[in-house]
Write a structure and sequence with these properties.
With 327 residues, the chain is α+β, with helices and mostly antiparallel strands. The chain contains nine helices and seven strands.
């Protein structure tokens, strides 16, 4: 779907979805134009290639996907790639991201997304309520979209803290038991997700920082504070990701430490049992040889005496082990 929104003092706010409508809007040099589309079509190709004449490599990046966040200056316009959370409730263990492409010029903004329409719908709704908002220029319009995109990241980052707290409680409760293997899998899933988000955050933070600085002519000085605000919000998210990644790695190490501790406890118990059984095995082995001339067999109550010796040895060892703190 293609949506063309234009505003001028003469015609006010107008909307169209055709190539001819976009060409007519662009012919008005005083108009501010926003073109948004979410899938490739003949009309979108014509708008990108013929109407605006964007660089072929930039157009290729729009449709190819799989790019890191970046900003490129083509002199007459900027080409931005940013990543946004996909529409719907995000899953911390498997965050689904979508690329957003923005072409920012002196009087136009061309945007493209596939599966992240929430930000664009919010901005379009705002324009319906306040048509003159677009008159502030395409840079302010780009800021409004980026602000919607970045605002969705922050609560998503906070969700990681809650999930990690729950996992920490479960790990400490299980103390490395076999039943805690499910927690280990969740820790690994969260760690992988956080590593992925960290790579994204580093690149996207760099892009937003460049936009917030006086580096590009397409972003006027009066809009730079707004871009700095967006950049600061994403820096906070990036910092949260770094902290949560450290927490996940620490939790992973804690799980293995508790597992090792539990294993040592089991091995110590088995060693104590083996030590107690060892003299009993010696006694039963000696008197189980069944030689006919063993003098102990002629002693009255020798059977009861052997039991008494074995029980006494066991009690002495148990008392000694308890005093040593091994039981």
């Amino acid at each position: 779907m293609i949506r063309v929104t234009a505003y001028s003092a003469k015609n006010g706010l107008t909307k169209t979805d055709s190539l001819e409508g976009a060409r007519a809007a662009l012919a008005d040099e005083k108009a501010v134009i926003w073109v948004h589309f979410d899938r490739r079509s003949e009309t979108s190709d014509a708008i990108l290639e013929q109407l605006f004449g964007f660089h072929p490599l930039a157009i290729e990046d729009v449709y190819k996907g799989g790019h890191r966040p970046k900003v490129e200056d083509y002199h007459d316009y900027l080409y931005l790639i940013v990543h946004a959370l996909a529409d719907g409730e995000p899953d911390p263990a498997l965050p689904e991201l979508r690329e957003l492409d923005l072409f920012l010029g002196s009087n136009f903004l061309v945007s493209h997304s596939d599966g992240a329409a929430t930000a664009f719908q919010a901005v379009a709704k705002r324009l319906d309520q306040d048509p003159k908002a677009i008159a502030r220029g395409p840079a302010f319009l780009a800021h409004a979209i980026l602000d919607q995109v970045i605002d969705r990241f922050r609560p998503f980052g906070d969700a990681y803290g809650k999930v990690l707290e729950q996992l920490e409680d479960r790990v400490l409760a299980k103390r490395g038991a076999v039943e805690g293997e499910e927690s280990l899998e969740q820790i690994l899933e969260l760690t992988r997700a956080l590593v992925r988000l960290r790579r994204l955050a580093i690149a996207q933070r760099h892009v937003l920082t460049r936009l917030a600085q006086a580096e590009f002519d397409e972003i006027p000085a009066d809009s730079q504070p707004f871009f700095r605000d967006v950049s600061e919000h994403f820096v906070e998210f990036h910092d949260d990701v770094e902290v949560h990644l450290d927490e996940a790695r620490a939790l992973f190490e804690a799980f293995h430490s508790l597992s090792s501790y539990r294993m040592n406890e089991v091995m110590r118990l088995l060693t104590v049992i083996s030590t107690i059984v060892l003299p009993l095995t010696f006694v039963t082995g000696v008197y189980g040889m069944n030689f006919p001339n063993m003098p102990e067999f002629s002693v009255p109550h020798s059977y009861e005496l052997a039991w008494g010796i074995m029980i006494s040895l066991s009690l002495v060892q148990v008392i000694w082990f308890r005093r040593r703190g091994w039981l």
